[in-house]
């Protein structure tokens, strides 16, 4: 947790999602959240790993009852600072591995939009998913975000010229899977590993979406776009973000599951 505290106390997550390139991930995620919520009357939402509240606060201000759980105390304080007291939002400090504060089948939508970035063993990933599935009502949705392996190999290892460094540190497997531990902050995954996690639970995959697709590869270009060109980029991105032949190269993905 010390690595996470240090990272998030110095990183402006809101600024990332508010940047032009960061808006692509945010707008895409909100698009699919809205799609999942559309089938329910006044759905109750749980966001685990809510960060500074970019999603939870937005949804609460739209009138949805939201429970936001966040591990990092500094993030939680920023989240609370965005509220004026009128929002139907409860903010708690907690851990994705222990949702025992919530009864079974409590929420129509459960979101893990950050925890899987920082869980380094398959056992912990399964534990977090098990808790999310448990607290979700049958017919409800579980939305889980992941950081993808290939984008890091392409952009960081090769694109930023870190190949020799990561080889010297033994951070790559023979099949080019990045090795992660807490000091690296982020855990990286492949699409087949996500599918293997899902297979352990009574869920149906609805979609696996590339939430930023090619955007981060073109970050400087995207940030320099005028409004009209950026609008066209968003239109293109939405047209291709569900294409499974492109998913693995996205920096972030959103796995949309429905509980049976």
List key phrases describing it.
260 residues; alpha/beta; Rossmann fold; 11 helices; 41% helix; globular
What does this 3D model show about the protein?
The protein has helices spanning 2-10, 13-18, 20-37, 56-61, 73-81, 122-135, 149-159, 163-168, 191-198, 219-223, 227-240, and strands at 45-48, 66-70, 89-93, 107-112, 136-148, 188-189, 203-210, 252-259. The protein has 260 residues and is an alpha/beta fold. The chain has one domain: Rossmann fold, CATH 3.40.50. It is globular, with a radius of gyration of 18 Å.
Gist of the model:
The chain has helices at residues 2-10, 13-18, 20-37, 56-61, 73-81, 122-135, 149-159, 163-168, 191-198, 219-223, 227-240, and strands at residues 45-48, 66-70, 89-93, 107-112, 136-148, 188-189, 203-210, 252-259. By secondary structure, the protein is of the alpha/beta class. Strand 4 (107-112), helix 6 (122-135) and strand 5 (136-148) form a beta-alpha-beta unit.
